[in-house]
Amino acid sequence: METLSVRCNHCGAPLQVAEDTRFVTCQFCQSSLEVKRTDSSVFTEEVAKIAENTGKMAGSLEVITVQNEIEKLDREMGLEQVPTSKKGGGGLAGGIVGAAFGLFFAVVCFLMASGFSSAGAGMFTIVPVGMGIFGLVMAGSALIGSVNHEAHRSKYQERREELEQKLEALKQK
User: Please, which residues bridge with residue 15 across strands?
Assistant: First the structure.
């Protein structure tokens, strides 16, 4: 078997290694070394430095992973990042206003149906009653939608804050 002559990159001592050797320990300084080969050279690198660099890369990867989680969370929220005035919603207050408008619309429609009924126009009472029911449904939908929206937004904000704290802790390392 053919041996190669290389030097320890920690202390500079000469080392004799077999062609297929991948790891070696220096007899003089006891450094653990990896034998590296290129087309034109053979050299050694301390395993401790490799482990240190691997640890740094793992830390960087963890930071990138948390950053990607934050970006994914933001993408999932979609329109939540658009200011309220641009998207036309108003959160809980908008839901209450929408519900009040729906109830007002329903009351007006039911009053119209009552008026048509007392005037003897029985067939014409169906349309305002239907519109009144539609108004009630829309009022409930506006209120429920705004409550759900606020709950979803609250969960989003909690998760984002948690991820930002985790990211800051990772960057402190």
Answer: 6
